[in-house]
Design a protein that fits this description.
heterodimer, A: about 375 residues, alpha/beta, Rossmann fold, Helix Hairpins, Heat Shock Protein 90, 3 domains, 5-stranded parallel sheet, 5-stranded mixed sheet, 11 helices, about 40% helix, disordered N terminus, B: about 140 residues, 6 helices, globular
């Protein structure tokens, strides 16, 4: 499994400003150019969130992904608030009361997204002066920024998807022009064909060929549409994997690639169906591209006690260990200029995290790679 | 493997020439065969570059084949590799590319390698026959 190295902090940074939570924070070294992962020398900032409605949930999702931040707890008056459920999935402590947040030992920053106008004063009066409080207008601005970030991520995902469709041109041309050649050839023949049985047979062949070309447009329209925001629903994983296998054929020729499907029945996850399709198409395309001289693509789904597990394996070139840590980083690509955006795996990671899942990769140069996605079980309503 | 059986290798009685069509789509091979047979050509088929190389190397084919029509995007040995092989080993046989995906750079490079025509699907029967006719004029007979 890939592990991005993060060492535990050795120095305490009491009083350090936390106004800039995203890396690079104070004293954070960068990755050096050879790709050797350097270590963050600062400890994560311990943050607690008050309010687990839409704002709290979005904030939790965002902060959870930032390595320099540790969410130590979240609280809401309403025990059914969506953010509390999300926190349990992410193994983040759910604190029963506001008082538990205020009294929390070790918290450095309390973010109030309750929307309660009286909360700011309560916090200012009762919170330990060493603990910073983000409340009132400041937290409203933060909420707006969080929403803005979510929109940008959606735009980025869509842009990357559209960029990818450019590489479908060869596949689409192949799938449209071959049937067109058949149709043209048969139609030309029909202009002077005298045998009525042959006429009927060839007319039927033309109808079938036309039908084949119409599926191309159907597949691609469903793929290229903008994923609807906040559109989480149960997704049939096996059906989505089948769709992705169809669409990936436009992006890359499956010549000499044997496709093995190992599906457990009834595997479902909760998420955005369009985004999940995009994730699968990307992983399958990468896998086939890694097998230039052919091989076996294995696509599998399974239910485990931890939830749904989806694997995409190839028997291709594999990923050198020194690159393994970078593959999920934005703009990282091994493809020649103009051939890859370097955003594929970065976006995949983002979508998977949004769905509260995890992604890992095992790879051996010369043997192949396996990407594993795990998603929490679908909860009954 | 298909092979022409002919005792006379400059051409049979009603045969204008012998053409090998290399394409992974059976539909394409079928319409090309139909189109060319009408014009009096005999047509051989291969489903990829590997099969095409096997075919041209078998029996009398190495002597009797007049023209190869070749797709680009195919499994096993693809069109580019197959064309390189034919140019190397059978330079006397004119090559026509018939592809579903027009690519100017590739067309230029292939024409430089000696491909006589670059056709994009769907191609009308008339044009295909004209291209084959032109290629027939450029072919050289196999050395005896």
């Amino acid at each position: 499994m890939i592990k991005v190295s993060e060492t535990e902090p050795e120095n305490d940074r009491a009083g350090r400003s936390v106004s800039c939570p995203s890396p690079p924070a104070t004293g954070t070294p960068m990755t050096d150019r050879k790709g050797v992962m350097l270590i963050e020398s600062t400890a994560p900032t311990k943050v607690a969130i008050l309010g687990a409605g839409r704002g709290g949930t979005a904030l939790l999702d965002l902060l959870h992904q930032i390595r320099t931040i540790e969410v130590v707890g979240i609280a809401d008056r309403d025990p059914r608030a969506p953010g509390l459920q999300r926190a349990r999935e992410l193994h983040i402590p759910v604190l029963p009361h506001t008082a538990d947040v205020i009294a929390h030992q070790g918290v450095q920053l309390i973010m109030d997204v309750t929307g309660d106008p009286g909360m700011e004063q309560i916090l200012r009066d009762r919170v330990n002066p060493n603990v910073e409080v983000l409340s009132g207008p400041a937290s409203r601005i933060l909420w707006e920024l969080v929403q803005h970030e979510a929109r940008l991520q959606a735009e980025l995902l869509h842009a990357e998807k559209l960029a990818g469709i450019g590489s479908f041109a060869a596949g689409i041309a192949h799938d449209i022009n071959n049937p067109l050649q058949l149709i043209l050839g048969l139609a030309e023949n029909l202009t002077d064909e005298r045998n009525l049985d042959t006429v009927h047979e060839q007319a039927r062949e033309i109808v079938e060929a036309v039908k084949r070309t119409t599926t191309i447009c159907r597949d691609l329209t469903s793929y290229s549409r903008r994923a609807a925001p906040y559109h989480d629903s149960p997704v049939d994983v096996n059906a989505k994997l089948d769709d992705a296998l169809k669409i990936a054929r436009y992006a890359v020729a499956f010549h000499d690639v044997t496709v093995k499907k190992v599906y457990a029945p009834g595997v479902h996850v909760t998420g955005n169906p369009d985004e999940l399709l995009h994730v699968f198409v990307n992983l399958i395309t990468n896998a086939v591209q890694a097998m230039e001289r052919g091989g076996t693509l294995t696509v599998s789904s399974a239910m485990t006690p931890d939830g749904a597990q989806i694997r995409v394996s190839d028997t291709g070139s594999g990923i050198p260990p020194e690159l393994l840590e970078q593959i999920f980083e934005p703009f990282f690509t091994t493809k020649p200029p103009g051939k890859g955006t370097g955003l594929g795996l970065y976006n995949i990671k983002h979508v998977v995290h949004q769905m509260h899942g995890a992604i890992g990769v095992q790879s051996q140069p010369g043997t192949g790679s396996t990407f594993t996605l795990t998603f929490p079980p679908v909860l009954p309503d | 493997m298909s092979e022409f059986k002919s005792g006379f290798f400059v051409g049979g009685e009603n045969c204008n020439g012998r053409v090998l069509i290399v394409d992974d789509e059976p539909d394409i091979r079928k319409v090309v065969r139909m189109t060319l047979q009408k014009a009096g050509y005999e047509v051989l088929e291969a489903e990829n570059g590997e099969k095409a190389i096997e075919t041209i190397n078998s029996g009398e084919n190495r002597l009797l084949l007049d023209i190869i029509i070749c797709d680009i995007r195919m499994p096993k040995v693809n069109g580019i590799e197959a064309i390189a092989y034919f140019r190397q080993n059978y330079p006397r046989v004119p090559l026509i590319v018939l592809t579903g995906f027009p690519d100017t750079d590739m067309a230029t490079s292939l024409l430089r390698q000696g491909v006589v025509d670059y056709l994009v699907k769907p191609v009308e029967g008339e044009k295909l026959r004209a291209a084959v006719g032109r290629a027939m004029e450029q072919r050289e007979l196999a050395p005896l």
